[in-house]
Amino acid sequence: MTIAGCSICGNVTGNCRWQAREKMDGTLEAFDYVQCAVCGHLRLETPPANMGKYYARNYSPFHVRHIPPLRRWLYRSRTAPALGQSALLGRLLNLLKKPYYFYWLKKTGLRRGNRFLDVGCGAGMLVSILRCAGVDSQGIDRYFPAENLAEDEGVVLRRDLLDETGSYHAVLFDHSFEHIPNPRELLTKAAALLEPGGCVIVRIPLSDSFARYRYGANWVQWDAPRHLNLFTQDSFSRLARQCGLRVETMLQDSSSFQFWASEDYRHDRFFHSKESFAQSQQYVHFTRRQMRDYARWAKWLNQMGAGDQATFICRMASNEAVERPVPAQPGESTA
Fold first, then answer.
1. How many CA atoms within 13 Å lie on the side-chain side of 199?
2. Which of 160, 258, 268, 329 has its CA 20 to 30 A from that of 114?
3. Predicted confidence band of residue 331 (pLDDT cuts 50, 70, 90)
4. Is the pLDDT at 148 greater than 60, yes or no?
């Protein structure tokens, strides 16, 4: 059986197929993925002709949420320390709980007035938060529903990254990079948009994680067919070098979601079904103790480097560090 070579490292030997099913909506459509035997990269072999139908109106990242004035003030206060400002109130608020983006945002060097681009931003919640904090931020999403564009007050533009011009201090792919059919082309474009000292931030699931090996095709972040490319730490680092970037920082940031949502999938409780924990938030299938254990295990896996998602902060590499991409060729599987 002929299996195409790896789209990242070009390996043609020993690559194998895996089958995953659509479980967010529970249609159970089957999709074949090819896994590289060298770098471990997983990619959808034949993407659907109409990907738009898998980003229906109930796709949660597209839910527009307006920010009331009090919350805008809180976002501005809590975000200020990550932007290098000596905000006493923000530091005090963050002692209680830091925003989810705090730990990686402070490593980007982003400051008030800098330009920031969120690629595949959904409804643009983070873009709105950073605007509250004084960052010149913009979001783009090629799948964002046209009927929602009037509601977001210009926060989101429905267009492709390849159409962008100008320069940015930071370009973010916040769990959107795995949805891209041409990751090398778009990462190269993102690198070209950087101003001196800027960075590309890529937050992605990791297919070389404990959760992926434990749950197989029931791993919630497989998310067939929306996730077209599932990277390992190795395959993403290779791709970054091919695009003229170097990984400066990798932060593992998986959560208990990898366990309870995958357990739901294992028992055919689909993400959008009313029986799932995601929709009900009721402790019917899981005890509170189980949920605490899941959170503790996630923290431990992050420390061990085996979590199921990570944030990569990349900056421009020197010319001698750039790798030339290896063209993938069809090969025979030995699996």
1. 21
2. 160
3. very low
4. no
At 177 the three-state DSSP class reads helix
Q: CA 67 → CA 39, 64, 132, 157, 303, distances in Å?
A: 42, 10, 10, 19, 34
User: Phi, psi at residue 204, to the nearest 5°?
Assistant: -140, 155
CA distances from 136 to 96, 114, 117, 315 (A): 27, 6, 9, 20
Question: Tokens for 248?
Answer: 């400066």
Report the candidate in 174, 178, 275, 278 with the shortest Cα–Cα distance to residue 222: 178
Give SS3 for 32.
strand
> How far apart, in Å, are the Cα atoms of 234 and each of 102, 208, 240, 250, 262?
25, 9, 10, 12, 24
Cα separation of 88 and 60, whole Å?
A: 34
Residue 312, token pair as written in the block:
């990569």
- Answer whether residue 329 shows pLDDT above 60: no
Helices (H) and strands (E) in the chain, counts: 10, 13
Taking only the tens place, the pLDDT of each residue in 174-224 is 999 999 999 999 999 999 999 999 999 999 999 999 999 999 999 999 999
What's the CA angle centered on 119, arms 87 and 55, to 5 degrees?
Answer: 120
Please, what sign has the CA dihedral across residues 297, 172, 156, 57?
negative
CA distances from 334 to 1, 44, 121 (A): 9, 19, 40
